[in-house]
């Protein structure tokens, strides 16, 4: 049985995941296989990346469930790199849920995640499968930042403190590959658009409905900024909000169901753990994009530009033209471009009760966030599930369709820090002054 199976290894991001795992410091601790539709392309990939002879090739077509199931049955952890996920990804999730496997992907398609929750979440809990979508730029940083802000506030104020508004501001320059362009066009077709609209409603992925979220399109002042700076609509805001809200909902649900899940003997211990993880019923989340100027005018103009851009892409002739001039699947930024990129994301989370106390959590990444770091984050999620099962948080134990924070939590924070490519800091903010730094 192979430890890690990468389905879609010949795609642009799939290649980056494969390259990263092949040169990982823990490479001797796991076996690796590539799921490819064409063995000739698989062999070419092995030669191009100089993969060792022991890296296996598994021929499969994701449209053929029998082939997918046969490959998944012989793997411990599956990394799904085949998109658009709403068209091509369900069979891989289904096979993992049926056979109790661990699964990660880097989808940004909230309607795909909603569909797999509806169809496979319960099944996964019965087989012990751990299904973790959205393990890339969307939505690892957002999910872990709120997780760390919650931890910082509870360490400072006690385990019963509850969170109020939590906002994240991103400074990032995203370059898109051909696969990303294809997914964007696919998501705007008539068949996907309705599913996407349904999945973007507040708490669409959460088992618990919380307080109404702030508007994502109106310019938002950044807390403690002087002179004031403003954030604007962020392309990943809907998927990130949905994942953070699912973490909120799973933590709330498990806190109140710990006796049922773990029995009377372990109830006290598990209740204490869940109390530390729960965000509280007044929690709300939103996120925004920030440019260097932080200008209010720029924030409004960019928000309107993105609205017009999305509306134009709903028109079939515009989509046809967009596809003609865009990169093709498998194409993307050069190695030099993805090495040069970087991003910074800052989360501000305030307590629900007065007097208000704020936590500020910052994530910094070195490398292109959408590709190099997405490949790194996805691979580290997979390795965390494979190599650190005993250290996974209590929220991972029931299995199901989880999130990066509920499936991996501190394991993932530690692994990402260890790469040297990502840094996390979390601290209490009082009157603009920062103190009690956690990391």
Task: Briefly characterize the structure.
The chain is an alpha/beta fold and 439 residues long. It has 17 helices and 15 strands.
Estimate percent helicity: 40-55%
Question: How many helices?
Answer: 17
* Strand arrangement in the largest pleated sheet: 3-2-1-4-5-6-13
Quaternary organisation of the protein chains: single chain
Q: How many E strands?
A: 15
The profile of the biggest β sheet is: 7 strands, parallel
Q: What is the end-to-end distance?
A: 38 Å
> Spans with pLDDT under 50 lasting ≥5 residues?
432-436
User: What does the radius of gyration come to?
Assistant: 21 Å
Q: Determine the strand fraction and express it as a percent band.
A: 15-25%
> What's the mean pLDDT score?
90
Shape: globular
Q: Can you describe this structure?
A:
- The protein has 439 residues and is of the alpha/beta class.
- It is built from 17 helices and 15 strands.
- It has helices at residues 12-22, 39-49, 65-73, 85-88, 90-99, 110-127, 140-157, 178-187, 190-199, 237-256, 258-277, 296-313, 316-325, 335-340, 372-387, 404-407, 410-418, and strands at 2-7, 32-36, 56-59, 75-80, 102-105, 130-132, 163-172, 220-221, 230-231, 284-289, 342-351, 358-366, 400-401, 422-430, 433-435.
- The strands form 3 sheets. A 7-stranded parallel sheet has the order 3-2-1-4-5-6-13, with helices on both faces.
- Helix 2 (39-49) links the parallel strand 2 (32-36) and strand 3.
- Helix 15 crosses helix 17.
- The chain is globular and about 65 Å long.
- Mean pLDDT is 90; it is low at 432-436.
């Amino acid at each position: 049985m192979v430890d890690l199976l990468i389905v879609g290894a010949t795609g642009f991001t799939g290649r980056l995941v494969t390259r990263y795992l092949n040169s990982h410091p823990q490479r001797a601790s796991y076996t690796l296989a590539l799921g490819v539709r064409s063995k000739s392309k698989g062999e070419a990939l092995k030669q191009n990346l100089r993969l060792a002879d022991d890296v296996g090739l598994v021929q499969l077509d994701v449209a053929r469930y029998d082939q997918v199931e046969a490959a998944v049955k012989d793997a411990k952890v599956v990394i799904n790199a085949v998109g658009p996920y709403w068209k091509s990804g369900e069979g891989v999730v289904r096979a993992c849920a049926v056979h109790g496997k661990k699964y990660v992907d880097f989808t940004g398609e909230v309607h795909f995640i909603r569909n797999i929750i509806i169809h496979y979440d319960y099944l996964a809990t019965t087989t012990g499968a751990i299904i973790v979508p959205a393990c890339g730029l969307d939505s690892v940083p957002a999910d872990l930042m709120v997780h760390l802000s919650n931890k910082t506030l509870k360490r400072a104020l006690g385990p019963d403190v509850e969170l109020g508004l939590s906002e994240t501001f991103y400074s990032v320059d995203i370059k898109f590959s051909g696969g990303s362009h294809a997914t964007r066009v696919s998501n705007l077709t008539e068949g996907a658009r309705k599913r996407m609209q349904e999945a973007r409603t507040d708490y669409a992925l959460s088992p618990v409905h919380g307080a109404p979220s702030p508007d994502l399109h109106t310019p938002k002042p950044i807390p403690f900024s002087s002179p004031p700076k403003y954030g604007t609509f962020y392309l990943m805001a809907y998927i990130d909000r949905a994942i953070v809200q699912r973490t909120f909902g799973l933590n709330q649900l498990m806190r109140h169901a710990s006796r049922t899940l773990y029995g009377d003997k372990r109830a006290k211990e598990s209740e204490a753990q869940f109390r530390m993880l729960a965000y509280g019923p007044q929690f709300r989340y939103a996120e925004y994009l920030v440019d260097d100027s932080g200008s209010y005018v720029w924030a409004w103009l960019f928000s309107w530009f993105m609205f017009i851009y999305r509306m134009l892409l709903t028109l079939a002739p515009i989509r046809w033209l967009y596809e003609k001039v865009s990169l093709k699947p498998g194409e993307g930024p050069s190695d030099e471009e993805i090495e040069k990129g970087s991003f910074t994301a800052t989360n501000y989370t305030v307590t629900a009760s007065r007097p208000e106390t704020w936590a500020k959590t910052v994530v910094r990444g070195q490398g292109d966030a959408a590709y190099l770091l997405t490949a790194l984050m996805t691979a580290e999620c997979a390795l965390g599930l494979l190599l650190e099962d005993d250290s996974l948080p209590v929220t991972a134990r029931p299995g199901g369709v989880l999130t990066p924070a509920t499936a991996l939590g501190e394991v993932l924070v530690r692994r990402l820090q260890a790469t040297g490519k990502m840094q996390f800091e979390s601290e209490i903010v009082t009157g603009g002054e920062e103190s009690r730094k956690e990391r």
